Amino acid sequence: MHTEKVTARRLTAEEISELGLQDGIFVSAGMEDLPLDCYAPAFLTEPGKNFEGGSFAARTVFGEEVHVLPDNAEEGGIWIADKGGEEIEVLQSAGVLLNLALFVPNGNTEALGALYSAARDAFGAGVVQRWSEEVVAVPDIKIDLYEEPVRGRKNNSQNRDRRALDIYPTRVRFLEPSEGWKFIVEPHKEIVDDTPTI
After folding, report:
1. N- or C-end of the chain: fewer Cβ atoms within 10 A?
2. How would you label 118-132 residue by residue, b for 16+ Cβ within 10 Å and e otherwise?
3. Residue 186: is its pLDDT beyond 80?
4. Burial (Cβ within 10 Å: 0-12, 13-18, ≥19) of residue 44
5. Sign of CA dihedral 13, 14, 16, 17
6. Which residues make beta-bridge pairs with 10?
């Protein structure tokens, strides 16, 4: 386990309520019933000013969501880097886990096996691992993806922003609409430029 000593101080609920989503904090690094006697870098899931009592929610850089009662002495609390504080052990990253969505044309077992072998050759057999595999048949159709404001008028295409054209529907599963916007999916239409030419 790779950790780094960081000088930090524990925050009170009042101090946490002044933090925003970009402020780096440290929370207990325990993961899924695995108690660890150290901390993990994290960020609040919503601004501290929205706090209405109870626990603060934070997401660690490792993807774990943690709920913290800041004034509970039995919990690790929320910490922030401070040169005048005390030393704590902070868990460091061992690497980055990529969840890849790969489109393999006419994908079959041989093509997937070749892709996996090539990745292992490029990065090392002990690095590339198949944790889970979901093989999804992609329909031979493409769509155009637009975004519209959630509270926009119906049938008003002027409030529409083009997000992606000519993509497969399965890709939409890996996209999220912008804040305050919703996705509009339409069958793909080739753009015909009927501007007269001289």
Report:
1. C
2. ebeeeeeeeeeeeee
3. yes
4. buried
5. positive
6. 79
pLDDT tens by residue, 42-89? 999 988 887 777 788 899 988 888 888 877 888 888 999 999 999 999
Which two structure tokens, joined as six digits, stand for 122? 């490029």
Shortest CA distance to 17 belongs to which of 39, 44, 36? 44
CA distances (Å), origin 127, targets 2, 63, 122, 138, 159: 18, 20, 10, 28, 46
Sheet with 181-187, strands from edge to edge, namely 161-167, 143-149, 181-187
CA distance 191 to 185: 16
| 50-74 burial code (b ≥16 CB/10 A, e <16) | ebeeeebebbbeeebebebebeeee
Q: What is the pTM of this model?
A: 0.55
CB atoms within 10 A of CB 177: 15
Tokens representing 190?
């080739």
